[in-house]
Amino acid sequence: MNSRIWIKVGPAVGAVVLSVLALSGCSQGATTPAADTSSSSSSSSAPSEAAVKPALATADSSLGTIVVDTAGMTLYVFDKDVADSGASTCEGDCLVKWPAVVAKSDTPTVAGVTGKVGVITRTDGTKQVTLNGLPLYYWAGDAAAGDTTGEGVGGVWWVVAPNGDKIAG
Predict the structure, then answer these.
(1) Is the predicted pLDDT of residue 85 greater than 80, yes or no?
(2) pLDDT classification of 53: cutoffs 50, 70, 90
(3) Which residues are within 8 A (CB) of 155 and not within 5 positions of it... i.e. 6 or more apart?
């Protein structure tokens, strides 16, 4: 009798488990993609995707060449942050709209970015990628790669150029 029940409900249970596993990979949400900053030290013969894609790259946009993450999402700097202070001033509610670009290592990889890339440790212990000493952020209003809708928000948020300068356009 138990095997008959399992035959009927087993596929449904399996589908639920697979759905939960798939959704748990999306827990960061579409507006807060995690930067892949790991470097490969694996001894496998096939390079991992993390070893191939840099944490920071560049892309062409209507604002010129800009800095993006591995998924092509635009990155921003905040005027209230102080370069080389080792700290971010965006905390609490600010982070809901402007999620930090999180690093998985102290040495993020880059492609096309000419400014000085580094990492700071946030008050919650996470590591945040910096460019020329300024913490980098995403804008929750950007829905797709290449969006730059956070440019100039509040007169203090700016898309960043490959050399680390803010693009005030």
Answers:
(1) yes
(2) low
(3) 79
